[in-house]
């Protein structure tokens, strides 16, 4: 084993069970929080704790992620401020209508969140709960809205600048080395899947969907590469193209699996061994120099499908090389379109508005003073939960994590600080609580990581650092009570009006895949290249795979989703090759083949392929289109057989 590979597999050095990089991240967060508070005190901001809270929210492990999130946070804050002023100026004399407008706005923002991903989705929900933090908390003093908005904007700017400065000075790591390693690992797993298909070994549909899910899950991280450095846009384009190419290669593997297996075991093993040469002979892999020698009795469609697979594999290698070197933008740069379910997003938005309405009604009927604090926290939790896969699980985690954060803040405020007013003592007292919570966020366990994030945010909210620091037990208990009350009310509302179930989401997603498969060639949508449209389909398969476990019903849904994915991709790639024949003598046959693809009749597609091949003669484009049609015929036939089998299992 080489020194490089040995160092790559050596476990990282740890302190108290945490890697050094986790400690570096936690210390950066503490330093940024201290700087944000110091600058806020110096500028005499009205709510300096908002600057510290901004640092906690922007606590991301890499520089590019924190910078991108900060940019979206500033944009969303501006939108929230404008909407707050508009709502209050129009409805300040009618509180009931103001609350209705607020609930509707939160619903619109949650709907927008459902159509986005990454920090764009976060910006959408932030636009919603910013109105709660500005307009709702000033519902008894509407003339103070503009002043509160300016104060919050200044605090957010201070927090964003603080964490950006600390990340640059302390050399926060970039994301692209880890992302390149993740893409390379996924590529190797995909190559092993290709080897299993070539060797005619059994493969698992759930495993394939899981691989697809891991590939498309890198989409938000790839967008943050553009803000890391001057070479960030080039790296982002290379990583995005590599991700799309991985999905295209996965489709090529599945298309090969639909063809008859090669009968000669020696030939299968020789073909499978081609994918073992990536690390030893990278130049050969990138240029696709390996010959594909098949037995004489092997169909020509197998040779074409194998060559297509090798071409896709070479494209992935080229994009990964461009990501690593960042010397120039890749020759082919693909988009990575996101599949958006309008129906699911709309349902989530309506339910979020209903949750706000229920909690508002309860708080109004209760008549508690300053209940606007609880309502603003409800909106915040709804917004942050909407960016997670399971909003109710997020609220449950908040419900049980809030008492922990309250207890820790009480220890910090009344036992550690205990009346001190010197800023250095405040900074030192914050250290163990912020560093410890930040270390938890770096853990792979989602529950512990979530608790760490809850503590980072809620400690900042409950402590409410000010200059001078106040130590009022009654105010502390009041804030703690309403914080826990907010999570409890929201959890009750989410049980009364539950989020969209996983089963219902899968049904809607499968229905949309089926409808698009029926109409995609008729609509003539040319917004995306076939590879890009296939990536969009993969996002939908990943959403279906995420909505359930490994029970039999879920497995059937995954297999059905993959069948739609296989057919849509095969038809798109065939249609693209037929388009190249428009101005050739075989254009009439190409039109017939396109009609067969629209009908999705495997027999008609095969007849069109044979007819086109007989007329192709020396036309390489026509020959390639004919081979692609044969592969598409096999894919459609296999998908229909699988669908019939699934219906038989269900009955």
Structure description:
The structure is a single chain. With 651 residues, this protein is mainly alpha-helical. The protein folds into three domains: 12-174 and 339-496, no CATH class; 176-227 and 232-325, no CATH class; 502-650, no CATH class. Helix content is 76%, strand content 1%. It has helices at residues 3-9, 20-43, 49-57, 63-91, 95-114, 118-136, 145-169, 176-198, 205-216, 219-223, 232-257, 265-273, 282-287, 300-325, 342-366, 372-386, 391-417, 423-441, 446-463, 473-496, 502-523, 530-546, 552-579, 587-599, 602-616, 620-650, and strands at residues 14-15, 18-19. The protein has a two-stranded antiparallel sheet. A hairpin with a 2-residue loop joins strand 1 (14-15) and strand 2 (18-19). The longest helix is centred in the C-terminal third of the chain and has 31 residues, at 620-650. It is elongated, with a radius of gyration of 28 Å. The two termini are 54 Å apart. Mean pLDDT is 86; it is low at 1-9 and 279-289.
Explain the layout of strands and helices.
Blueprint: H1 3-9, E1 14-15, E2 18-19, H2 20-43, H3 49-57, H4 63-91, H5 95-114, H6 118-136, H7 145-169, H8 176-198, H9 205-216, H10 219-223, H11 232-257, H12 265-273, H13 282-287, H14 300-325, H15 342-366, H16 372-386, H17 391-417, H18 423-441, H19 446-463, H20 473-496, H21 502-523, H22 530-546, H23 552-579, H24 587-599, H25 602-616, H26 620-650
Antiparallel strand pairs: 1-2
